[in-house]
Structures are given as C-alpha cells and as structure tokens.
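Hello again, I could really use a second opinion on something today. I owe you a coffee for this, so here goes:
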Amino acid sequence: MVKYQPSTMDRTFAALADPTRRAILLRLEQEPGLSVSELARPLAQKLPGMMKHLDVLADAGLITRTKAGRTVSVHLAVEPMREAMAWLKRYERFWTASLDRLVAFVEKDNEP
C-alpha cells in the first residue's frame, strides 16, 4: 500500500477549512505576535484545544511560534497563503466568466 503524503497546498487548504483556525489567522493579521493564551481567550478555547489548532496551522506553515521565557508568541507566515492564492488565481477567469453570465441572465430576466 502506498502512503499518501499531503502537499503543502493540501495542508494549507485543510487548515483553512476550519472556522476557528481562520479566526485565529484573522486575529493574527490584526494583532501580530499575540500569545497563545491571548489567542484562546476570545474564542472560548481551552489551551489544549488551542494548541491543536495551532499545531495544524504550524504544520501547514501558516504560523510560526517563538518562545520568550514562558510566553509563546504566534506570528503569521505568508508563503503558504501566497502559494494558495496563486493556485486560486489560475481559476479566477473561469469564476469571473460564470459570474458575468449569471449577472447578465439575472438582469435580462428582470427587464420589464
């Protein structure tokens, strides 16, 4: 049996699939370098649950953690997101064309 090794892109999209992890990334964008406990507080997450989310984000390369004394600070890492955006950008023309056709259809259907 062949073992499947998920690519960086697979790990990125898997990490982004969870709303809690997306909320963590959004918070880090707005407030870089928060501690793990500061990140957990507004999400009503206990530390073990938060650490699991942070492990997934770190495995995907979306965050880095630094330790100063007993405090672990979390920072965004942009490269995996750039790769995901470049991948999505290749398909944007298909979405744009479909949405343009939908808008034209709706506008035509609403004409008196």
